[in-house]
Write a structure and sequence with these properties.
It contains seven helices and 23 strands. The protein is an alpha/beta fold. A seven-stranded parallel β-sheet has the order 20-19-18-15-23-22-21. The chain has helices at about 200-210, 220-225, 245-260, 275, 310-325, 340-350, 385-390, and strands at about 5, 15, 30-35, 60, 70-75, 90-95, 100, 110-115, 120, 125-130, 130, 140-145, 155-165, 165, 175-180, 180, 195, 235-240, 260-265, 285, 330-335, 355-360, 370-375.
């Protein structure tokens, strides 16, 4: 059985089966990284395997296979060589590691982030290899390889399934908005509905995994909103605002245990070290602004964003992007949910795919991608309430 390696905050390496759910750890740690342990000889090729039901998306394949017409090819496979494994580099695949594409639609490559604990973000050094042909049913592999300054390499892989159909397409998509996480041994003094007990979060993640939910990337969601991409009905995105200490300490281990990908929206001016120390294969750090999470206007909820020019907002998001991943940054959550046309234009100019408000609703096709809704999670909700929030619309 293939394995991946996890590295905790103290630098201890832990191995776990790729399809197993490792024991939980209460300590903060930096999670799993798929390592290049021997020869790196990824062969970039279009491959079609025996067709069956796809796991995790309600996908169905048939025995019919179309002639390849179009494909996405990254760089050629890396040459075989003896390498040293970069044990402490953390690689975070954006979206679901098992990505599903409806035959005939464009494959949307969401990319991968890489963090070296000694130097920080090294995403720009990732080389992506592999070929995906969305016109030919089958399973394809995309490989992300990064080389550190001393020549060591780390690697992560995404499996792309091109399928004939989904059991049902998504009619709307819940983007879940969490904030803070705590444990029974670490109860906050200022408890409110923004806090969720780690065991409750674990129960929710277990439900999503046990019921084959799909976790699209922000890029896939944007294409779906634009009406150019189909997603399965059981699609959901998890987001956590503020990068709060309890989430880092108690929430990330839960996401790692159940292998549920999520996005942490951080206030970047205070998060530069956290995005390194708490790097995780299952947590994508994105912007909650660099320094706009403060009051400064009498519009909306009073956020300063309403008092800033388009250029000032653009400058803020670009500064934030440098902390959360440079050119790899793709999404933002507005502080307090405050947004306006200047913000939409600034984020678009900055190259972001989408941005999120705090309006309590699902995302729909045709929504403004720079002002998307989210479904608010309360720590008081029981599992039945959670199920009602995420179950597909009829």
């Amino acid at each position: 059985m293939p394995t991946y390696r996890t590295t905790n905050a103290a630098g201890r390496n832990v191995h776990a089966a790729a399809n197993a759910r490792p024991p939980r750890s209460k300590a903060p740690f930096v999670a799993a990284v798929v390592i290049a342990v021997a020869a790196i000889a990824a062969v970039a090729a279009v491959m079609a395997f025996a067709f069956g039901n796809g796991s995790g998306s309600g996908a169905e394949k048939t025995d019919a296979q179309a002639e390849p017409m179009a494909s996405t090819t990254f760089s050629e496979a890396l040459p075989a060589e003896t390498v040293v494994a970069a044990d402490d580099v953390v690689m975070t695949i954006a979206g679901d590691r098992d990505t599903y594409v409806l035959k005939g639609e464009e494959y949307i490559e969401a990319g991968c982030h890489a963090v070296d604990p000694d130097v920080g973000d090294i995403t720009s050094s990732i080389e992506t290899t592999g070929t995906v042909n969305p016109d030919a049913l089958g399973d394809y592999e995309v490989t992300y390889t990064v080389t550190t300054a001393d020549g060591a390499k780390a690697q992560a892989k995404r499996t792309v399934h091109v399928v004939n159909s989904f059991d049902a397409p998504a009619q709307d998509i819940p983007v879940l908005m969490y904030h803070y996480v705590y444990s029974a041994d670490d109860v906050p003094a200022d408890m409110n509905n923004n806090y969720i007990l780690d065991t409750k979060l674990a129960e929710q993640c277990a439900y999503l995994r046990d019921n084959d939910y799909y976790f699209p990337s922000h890029q896939e969601l944007r294409a779906w909103v634009d009406g150019t991409h189909t997603l399965p009905a059981k699609s959901v995105i998890l987001t956590f605002d503020d990068g709060e200490a309890g989430f880092l300490k108690h929430g990330i281990p839960v996401l790692e245990e159940y292998e549920v990908p999520a996005t942490s929206f951080v206030v970047a001016k205070d998060a530069a070290q956290n995005v390194v120390d708490y790097a995780s294969p299952f947590v994508q750090f994105e912007s909650h602004s660099y320094d706009m999470h403060r009051a400064g206007s009498n519009v909306g909820k009073g956020g300063i964003i309403h008092a800033l020019s388009q250029q000032e907002i653009y400058d803020d998001i670009m500064a934030s992007n440098e902390v959360t991943g440079g050119s790899g940054a793709v999404a933002m959550a507005y502080p307090f949910g405050d947004n306006n046309e200047a913000a939409w234009a600034a984020l678009d100019d900055a190259g972001l795919f989408c941005a999120y408000t705090v309006k309590n609703d699902r995302v729909h096709v045709g929504d403004n991608p720079m002002a998307l809704n989210r479904v608010r999670l309360s720590g008081e909700y029981d599992l039945d309430s959670f199920v009602n929030l995420v179950e597909p619309s009829a």
